[in-house]
Write a structure and sequence with these properties.
CATH topology of the largest domain: Isoleucyl-tRNA Synthetase, domain 2
Number of domains: 4
Shape: globular
CATH class of the largest domain: Alpha Beta
Distance between the termini: 69 Å
Structural class: alpha+beta
Strand content: 15-25%
Length: 937
RNA sequence: GGGGCGGUGGCGAAAUGGCAGACGCAGCGGACUUAAAAUCCGCUGGGGUGAUCCCCGUGUGGGUUCGAGUCCCACCCGCCCUACCA
């Protein structure tokens, strides 16, 4: 027998590639490097080495990038296609705690399993470049980048990061003054004080306050059950931890922060320069959340305190009838009058004790408390009450608002709940007025609206025309909202009562975690609060050896954080330098840190002197950085935003050559699967379920079908090993790609695999006589039709692979192969291109057939077949003929016929004439080579 | 509440505004076989019809166009993101 034996073939070629190092990629300057070729960096989002192993859905993107990498090698590119592991993180730590094994051991074991599974798929990674974020040789550079962040500040004038030493020099030279809050201001600013007037502590605070990595006492998401704080992005909208779904509480803690907000504008603007899916760009834009408006200062009546608010609607300032502070606002204590003290304190305590989920549930009902204090509306001069309410968040803007109940839904609800005055300062359009009046059962008209705004069901929040908005110096009456905004902002600025402001939703990145299994900070704490970065030469700061690395979880929301490093050996914790005793930073970095820059390390993974060699970085990142980055949408915001931020800092400091890391991003869809539950609601093994007449049965009992993720718990998991064993890896690769478009989610169906399996068998039989094992290939030209079909296929497959449309590329190859089955022998001019086109998709089979065609070298670097455009044009074309848009016949005309000739030929056709049925022909639309539409009267 | 993506045969899916359903699965019929598997050939959206041909058909209702699965408007359904962001 000489049938297609995928087991033998796949084992043979995987061994061949490994032995010959077929996919080892030489770098610039190395032997074998060809500078004459263009480069292509094809990257997967590297995985977390989970203990559960891969199921059939995980490698979807890896197969796709492998096809692209192989295709581009054949197109003459130098291709960088690496793989590694994002191995720090909570699951490994939790598993380690449960099973009392060191996370390093479980991590190593998981990686080994995963590498084995990946190698089974015949992926053409350069495995010499494999990296693990947990390797001290790797996280040494993660720590090094942190030191760069610590030693840098964001120069607002230059719009980029610069070394902190430059800042000190500029302060000393008087270029900047320092305002009360530590902000840098220009020398003319009345708030600023010159460097010379500052004492050493103030100077240090001023500089530390500008660093891109800084310590701050901030309200954080404290998760007692996990024993750690979490980033906003790790907390669900229900106010629970994304991992484990435990309650999360807000409380102030001193933590490391990264100043990503300094880059908000550039992170937003540079999205225009990358080729990414529009939804991902949109998610990032929303996350950054830029809004323009103004800061407005409200003096507090009877004190010298000023409450500054941010508003996007300064044009409604005359309608601000009260103010609201967040319950956590620092001025609340000072403002509250003695008679309101008890109520305010009770409200604040209740707000602090509520979890996010509870606040969420009560969001529809407005609650609050009056402080007893009043502010003065700077435009109207009115005395307005100051309230606190938890609908105002401390984390956004200034933590205080001016409430304009006439033109804001939340303020409107609040004002109605507490009987606060509502006035109209924007005139709505007539349609809105009429509609709302009808709903309210009011007579309608502008006069009624202005007099009885509180009786209307909802406030007008759109753009209109100003009314009731004038004082002695400025009038917004009659101005359209956009003009009114400009006018009032100009007046605020001129009179010193406010200024234009751009506000971002993006917050600084909370960078501390109370965990063991993460990168230690390269930071030492001195006895007097001194912060001393570890000398770069002393990196890495390795993880301490510990037997008990368990985070201390608690049910008590008030329990203090106890990082595991607090129990590390003295010898690790205490460091003496020049006679001064330091204690190491006890927190670790979040597990996003390692994935922020791994794509750079792949370029130069073994470099002991730099995170990446500049010449290699310039070569592989040339153009727009990574040329194709494939991964799931779940990383749309966090990973991709953090990595862009780090990259921009490294760019500003001259360590990388491009402003953006990932020039092109593609999100692969998910492979989902059916799962089945029996009468008790228990999952039954999906592969034992039978379908009969549209219903589903397990062991004779009816079961209910669900659709969702693949996994052990749903008993619907299919592993790559299962499929490779039964059908071979080439079939698996082909099937995953044939399932549908790469970016779509689609259901797995093991039953359908036979289709592509049959296809590969047909390819085999086209090349090899199964009875004799002889090659069926002959050195004879292909017939004209077959030649034409071949060239059409090459054109189609080339175009489809360029566009990542693997499903239709495979369909085209199936069609071509189906045309070969009737042939007695396979002409070599068809056999070779078919083999080449198959090589990226089903590389093992292609290698085997290529070798049998007589080639001594691997097909991996053989040139991609070209097509002859002349052969894509038919001699004669069949033109569809429509009468009044309905297909009524077909006419074959020579390809060269012009519109008039086609029209004449069509109108001469008897059957078409019959359909025209003597009616006058009003118009004839001719689409050359395609279609004719006859419009009759 | 706001935003995004999608809805095409029994199933997965194709289709630069130009023959809807390529290709595959499943199904039906046939060839080969003692038989089965494998393989090969044919049919396969629905309805009517002797052939032939006709009518209907891309979630629903409108619109633009000689012509709409594709573009526009409104609505229904599903999935995803986001959510008191001032």
């Amino acid at each position: 027998m000489h049938a297609y034996d995928f087991r033998v073939i796949e084992r043979k070629w995987q061994a061949y590639w490994a032995d010959r190092q077929t996919f080892r990629t030489p770098d610039p300057g190395e032997p074998g490097f060809d500078a004459g070729r263009p480069k292509s960096y094809v990257l997967d989002m590297f995985p977390y080495p989970s203990g559960k192993g891969l199921h059939i859905g995980h490698p979807l993107g890896y197969i796709a990038t492998d096809i692209v990498a192989r295709y581009r090698r054949m197109r003459g590119f130098n291709v960088l296609h690496p793989m590694g592991f994002d191995a720090f993180g909570l699951p490994a730590e939790q598993f380690a705690v449960e099973h009392n094994v060191h996370p390093r051991i479980t991590t190593e074991r998981n990686i080994e399993t995963m590498v084995g599974q990946l190698k089974l798929l015949g992926l053409s990674y350069d495995w010499d470049r494999a990296i693990q974020t947990t390797d001290p040789a790797y996280y040494r550079w993660t720590q090094w980048i942190f030191l760069q962040l610590y030693a840098s500040w964001f120069d607002p004038a230059a719009g980029r990061a610069r070394p902190v030493d430059d800042l000190t020099a500029e302060l000393a030279a008087g270029r900047w003054h320092v305002a009360a809050g530590g902000a840098l201001v220009l020398p003319g600013d009345p708030e600023g004080r010159p460097w010379a007037d500052l004492d050493p502590a103030a100077r240090r605070a001023a500089v530390d306050g500008q660093r891109l990595a800084y310590l701050a006492e901030v309200p954080v998401n404290w998760c007692p059950a996990l024993g750690t704080v979490l980033a906003n992005e790790e907390v669900t909208s229900e106010g629970r931890s994304e991992r484990g779904n435990f309650p999360v509480y807000r409380r102030p803690l001193r933590q490391w922060m990264l100043r990503i907000t300094a880059y908000a504008e550039r992170l937003l603007a540079d999205l225009d320069d990358v080729d990414w899916p529009e939804p991902v760009k949109l998610m990032q834009r929303n996350w950054i959340g830029r809004s323009t408006g103004a800061h407005v200062d409200f003096p507090v009546d009877g004190t010298d305190a000023v409450i500054t608010v941010f508003t996007t609607r300064p044009d409604t300032l005359f309608g601000a009838t009260y103010m609201v502070l967040s319950p956590e606002h620092p001025l609340v204590d000072r403002l509250t009058t003695p008679d309101r003290r008890a109520e305010v304190d009770a409200y604040r305590a209740a707000a602090a004790g509520r979890t996010e989920i509870e606040r969420q549930a009560e969001a529809k009902v407005k609650t609050g408390a009056f402080t007893g204090a009043h502010a003065v509306n700077p435009a109207s001069g009115e005395r307005i009450p100051i309230w606190i309410a938890d609908y105002v968040l401390m984390g956004y803007g200034t933590g205080a608002i001016m409430a304009v109940p006439g033109h804001d839904g939340r303020d409107f609800d609040f004002a109605r709940a507490f009987g606060l005055p509502i006035v109209a300062v924007v005139r709505p359009d007539d349609a809105w007025l009429a509609e709302q009046a009808a709903v309210a059962g009011r007579p309608g008209g502008l006069g009624d609206y202005l007099a009885h705004i509180a009786e209307y069901p909802e406030p007008f929040t759109g753009a209109g025309v100003g009314v009731n908005s004038a004082n002695a110096e400025v009038s917004l009456d009659g101005l359209a909202t956009a003009d009114a905004k400009r006018a009032i902002t100009a007046w605020l600025a001129a009179s010193g009562r406010g200024r234009a402001h751009v506000q971002y939703k993006l917050r600084d990145w909370l960078f501390s975690r109370q965990r063991y299994w993460g990168e230690p900070f390269p930071i030492l704490h001195g006895p007097d609060g001194e912060i001393r970065p570890v000398d770069a030469a002393d990196l890495p700061v390795t993880l301490p050896d510990m037997d008990d690395f368990q985070p201390e979880g608690s049910d008590d929301p008030d329990a203090p954080p106890r990082p595991p490093f607090g129990r590390a050996p003295e010898a690790w914790r205490r460091v003496t330098i020049d006679g001064r005793a330091y204690e190491r930073e006890l927190n670790t970095m979040p597990n996003w840190a390692g994935s922020c820059w791994y794509y750079l390390r792949f370029i130069d993974p073994h470099n002991a002197d730099a995170l990446v060699d500049p010449a290699r970085e310039r070569y592989w990142m040339a153009g727009h950085g990574v040329d194709l980055y494939v991964g799931g949408v779940e990383h749309a915001v966090l990973h991709l935003l953090y990595a862009r931020f780090w990259h921009k800092v490294l760019y500003d400091l001259g360590h990388v050559s491009t402003p953006e890391p990932f020039g092109r991003l593609f999100n692969q869809g998910y492979i989902q699967a059916y799962a089945y539950t029996d009468r008790r609601g228990v999952y039954v093994p999906a592969d034992e379920v039978e379908e009969r007449d549209g219903a589903f049965f397990h062991a004779g009992e009816p079961v209910r079908r669900e659709y969702g993720k693949m996994g052990k718990s749903l008993k619907n998991m299919v592993t790559p090993e299962d499929i490779v064993e039964r059908y071979g890896c080439d079939t698996l690769r082909l099937y995953e790609m044939y399932l549908g478009p790469l970016d779509a989610s689609k259901p797995w169906s093991t039953r359908d695999i036979v289709g592509v399996s049959r296809f590969l068998n047909r390819v085999w039989r086209a090349f090899v006589d199964e009875a004799t094992g002889d090659l069926r290939v002959v050195d004879a030209p292909a017939g004209a039709d077959l030649e034409r079909a071949l060239h059409r296929t090459i054109a189609k497959v080339t175009d489809d692979l360029d566009g990542l449309r693997f499903n239709t590329a495979i369909a085209a190859l199936i069609e071509l192969t189906n045309a070969l089955t009737a042939l007695d022998a396979l002409p070599r001019p068809v056999a070779a291109p078919l083999c080449l086109m198959l090589a990226p998709l089903a590389p093992h089979l292609a290698e085997e057939l290529w070798q049998r065609l007589g080639h001594a070298e691997s097909i991996a670097y053989a040139p991609w077949p070209a097509y002859d455009p002349a052969l894509l044009v038919e001699d004669a074309v069949e033109v569809v003929v429509q009468v009044l848009g309905k297909v009524r016949g077909r006419v074959v005309v020579p390809a060269g016929f012009d519109a008039a000739a086609v029209e004449a030929a069509v109108l001469a056709d008897d059957r078409i004439r019959a359909h025209i049925a003597g009616r006058p022909v009003r118009k004839v639309v001719v689409v050359p080579g395609k279609l004719v539409n006859i419009v009759t009267g």
